[in-house]
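Tutorial handout. Part one gives the primary structure; part two gives the three-dimensional structure as tokens.
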Amino acid sequence: MSAHQYDEGHTVAGWTGFAVAVVGTVVLGLGVCTVSAALLAGGLGILVLSLLVTWVLHLAGWGKPSGGRPREQWGWRTRDLSAREGHPGCVGCRLAGREQGHGG
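Part two.
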């Protein structure tokens, strides 16, 4: 039996975006502490990069749709094969032109 009994929602896209965002936050914090405009700009740039990395990985199927997933897809390294069509109500999919399930 698995150690966890529910879908925690962890994904490759989520963990990768989080790791890049942590680096950006550290650089931004160093910029604040050292009063360095270059570090502040670099930290903000890395934070923007974390958004883009997460979005691209989500669109490539390494994220997850909103809501629950079937138990066999709970693993964080499980690829979402429905990402190509887009997820209903997903802003990231809508921005990429994947309008499937758009209830508007």
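Part three, for discussion. The chain has a mean pLDDT of 85. The two ends are 42 Å apart (CA to CA).
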